[in-house]
Amino acid sequence: MNPYAYIREQVVAMIDVLADDGILPAGMDFANLAVEAPRDPSHGDVATNAALVLTKQAKMKPRDIAAPLAGRLAGLEVVEAAEIAGPGFINLRLADDFWRERLKDVLGTGTAYGDSQLAAGEKINVEYVSANPTGPLHIGHVRGAVYGDALATLLAKVGYDVCKEYYINDAGAQVDVLARSVHLRYREALREDVGEIPEGMYPGDYLIPVGQDIAKRDGDKWLGLAEAEWLGEFRRLSVDAMMDLVRADLASLGIEQEVFFSEQSLHLEGGIDSALAALRDKGLIYTGVLEPPKGKTPDDWEPRPQTLFKASQFGDDVDRPLQKSDGAWTYFAADIAYHHDKVERGYKQMVDVWGADHGGYIKRMNAAVRALSNDQGHLDVRLCQMVRLLRGGEVVRMSKRAGNFVTLRELVDEVGRDVVRFMMLTRKNDAPLDFDFQVAMEQSKDNPVFYVQYAHARIHSVLRRVGDELPDLAVDPESLAKSDLGRLTDSAEMDLIKHMATWPRAVEIAAQAREPHRIAFYLNELASDFHALWNKGNAEPGLRFIMPEDAGTTQARLALIQGVAFVLASGLAIIGVEPVDSM
RNA sequence: GCGCCCGUAGCUCAGCUGGAUAGAGCACCAGAUUCCUAAUCUGGGGGUCACAGGUUCGAGUCCUGUCGGGCGCACCA
Asked: Which nucleotide's C1' sits nearest to the alpha carbon of A580?
C-alpha cells in the first residue's frame, strides 16, 4: 500500500462527507490536493494542503475548511493526531501500528515493492544510444545508454509496457566511409601494403578483423573491382560487424535492447515514401525557398526551392527540408519515417534519448510526431549532457583523433559495470557530469555505489550471523513479516519504516519526471538512515539488531533491516546495479 | 540575431512539477571503535536561491526583462 495515496483517499472521502453535511460545497476539483510527507518531521507524518487548495472553490478561508476537516480526520483509526498549522496545512500523525503494517507490505512484496500500475500497461517506446555504427561505443555514449536503460526499467516498474529500441544510422555518407575503410583493411589482409590510413577514413584497429574476416571468407573476390561493385556488400558487412561490437559493448553494461531499427531499411523498403505520403495527404509538404538563418549565413548559401515539411504549423521556428540538393532524402526525412513507423506500431508514448548537441532538433521532431499521429502521439526527447572524465581531479584529455578517446569498454573494464551505471545517475540527465576514475574506485562513502551496496551487504551480514547466536530463529521474509513488530519502538527504527514507505511514491515521481537519478538519491538517503541506525547500536547496545537474549526483538529488527534490503535491491534493480550480499 | 538548457553554501549538486524555518556530500572544526563490517556514524559553522519586476493565501519552483555560462542554428548524421 502507498500510505500517501491511502491517506489522500481518506481526505477526499472526508471532504465528501462534509459536503453531504452541507459544511463544504459539493463537486469540487481535487486535482491539486496533495498528501505528502512534510519536509520537517516535527510537522507530523503526513500533511495535506487540502484547505489551501480548496479555499478558492469553496469561497471559504483556509482555516475554516481545515477545522472541520481536521476534526473528521482525527476520528480515523490510523490517525493519532490532526493539527492545523501555518496558513492552513493539516498535519497528521499516524499510529505506529499503521507504519508497522507498511513494513509488512515490504516484506510481503520483496523487491517488487514499489511496483505500480500507474501506467496501466500503456505501450511506450524508449529509444536510446543509437550511435552511428562506425566503431565501438565511447564515453560520449555511456550516459545516454545508462540513462535510457534505467528510464526504461523505471517506466516498466510503474506499469508501462516498454520497448527498448536502438536506431541504426546505417544510411548516411559516414557508412560509405566505413565501408571504404574496411575495404582498405581487406586489401591489407590480403598482404597488400596500403600504407597509412588516409585522412578522412576510419583508422581504428577495430576494423582490421573485419577486413580479415572478409578476406578469409571471400578471398580476392573483391580486388580490382570498381567501388560500385563492392561498396554495397562492404557496407552491409561492416555495419553488421560494427553492430556486433556495439551490442557487445552494451552487454558489458548489462544493456539489452529489443529492437534494432535500420535507417537503411526505410530507404529500401518504402518507409520514407509512405511516411511522406501520409504528410502530403494532410497538405503538410510543399516546395519553397527558405530564408537564410539570421546572423550566421553559411558561406555557400544559395536560395533554392526545396521540399519542405510544414514544421512551423506545429510549433517549430521554420519549415524543414526533406531533400538534399542532390535529391537524396535528408536525415530528417528518414527520422520522420522512423517515427511514423513507431506510430504505426501503436506507440502513443515515445521517448528519445539524445545528446545535448542535438537539442536544436527537438522542435522539428515533435512537430513531425504530432503531424504523423494527428496529435495523438507524444514524443518526449530527453537530452543528456556531456560527461567530463577526471582522474584525481585532473581532466582526462581526449583529442578528436581516433584511438585517443576513452571507450565504453575501457571505462567498464577499469571501474566495473555497477560503478559506471550508478555514477552516471548521480546527476540530473540534462546537467553536465564529472566522472572521476579515482572516486569511482574508492571504497568509501565518497563513492555512492559503494555506500549503498555496503548498506545492503551489512544487512546480509547480520542475517548470516544471527544463526550463530539464535540458531532456531526463523529469518525468512514470511516469518519476519509475522514477527512481533510492536518491538520496534525506537524513533530511528520508526523513521526507517517511514522512509521505506515513501518508496512507492518516490518511484512514481521519478517515473513521471522521467528522472531515474532520483532513484539514486533516494537510495543514498535510505542507506544513510540505515548506517545511522547501525551506529546507534554501537553506542547503545540495546539497539543492536541481534539481541542473543531476546529472540522476539531480534526477529522484529531483522524484519526491519530485511525490509531495507528489499527496498535497496528494488532501487538498485532500476539502476541496473547488483545488490551484493558481502564485500 | 534567433531557439533550447542552465545560474542554489567556499566546491560539486539535490530540491517530490507552487507549500511551512531552502537541503545533502566534499572541504573545514570537534567527537565516537574491548561491540552485528569505523569501508561507518554524531555534532558545528557556513545562503541576497544571479539581478529586477510580476502572478497569489504562498515563488528556488510559474511569467516578463536584464546580466552571466553551455549547446544548436539550409542541403552532415
From this structure: B37
Find which nucleotide's C1' atom is closest to A171's CA.
B77
* Location of C-alpha cell 521505506: A500
Protein-proximal nucleotides of chain B (any atom < 7 Å from a CB): 1-6, 12-26, 32-33, 35-42, 57-58, 70-77
**Nucleotide closest to residue A48 (CA–C1'):** B19
Report the top-level CATH class of A444-575.
mainly alpha
Q: Are A182 and A208 in contact (CB under 8 A)?
A: no
Q: Are A36 and A498 in contact (CB under 8 A)?
A: no
Amino acid at A279: L
Angle between helices A139-157 and A551-575 in degrees, nearest 10: 130
CA of A531 to C1' of B39 (A): 12
Closest nt to A529 (CA→C1')? B41
**CATH class in words for A3-94:** alpha beta
DSSP string of A159-204, one letter each residue:
T-EEEEEEEE--SSHHHHHHHHHHHHHHHHHTT----SPPTTS---
User: What number of helices (H) and strands (E) belong to chain A?
Assistant: 21, 15
Report the relative pairing of strands A305-309 and A285-289 from DSSP bridges.
antiparallel
CA-nearest of A301, A306, A322, A307 to A364 is A322
> What value of ipTM does the predicted structure carry?
0.94
Locate the domains of chain A by residue range.
3-94, 444-575
Cell numbers 597488400 correspond to A192
Q: Is A290 exposed, middle or buried (0-12, 13-18, 19+ CB in 10 A)?
A: middle
Instruction: Over range A546-562, report the average pLDDT.
Output: 95
The grid coordinates of residue A46 equal 503526513
pLDDT per residue as tens digits for the range A285-302? 999 998 887 766 777 788
For A292, the grid coordinates are 537564410
In angstroms, the CA A518 to CA A427 distance is 9
Q: What is the pLDDT of residues A346-383, one digit of tens each?
A: 999 999 999 988 988 999 999 999 999 999 999 999 99
In the three-class reduction of DSSP (H, G, I as helix; E, B as strand; rest coil), residue A257 is classed as coil
Separation of A425 CA and B33 C1' (Å): 33
* A294/B2 CA-to-C1' distance in Å: 7
Lookup: nucleotide whose C1' is closest to A326 CA: B75
Alpha helices in A474-550 (DSSP H): 477-481, 491-501, 503-513, 517-539
Which pLDDT score, from 0 to 100, does residue A402 have? 47
CA distance linking residue A507 with residue A553, whole number of Å: 31
Nearest residue, CA→C1' of B20: A86
Sheet with A394-395: list strands edge to edge: A394-395, A387-391, A433-436
CA angle A432, A434, A437 (to 5 degrees): 155
Strand order in the sheet with A46-48: A35-36, A46-48, A89-94, A79-85
Match 523505471 to its residue by C-alpha cell.
A154
Q: Are A136 and A408 in contact (CB under 8 A)?
A: yes
DSSP H/E element including A266: helix A263-268
Closest amino acid to nucleotide B58 (CA–C1'): A87
For the segment A313-356, what is each residue's pLDDT rounded down to a tens digit? 998 989 999 999 889 999 999 999 999 999 999 999 999 999 98
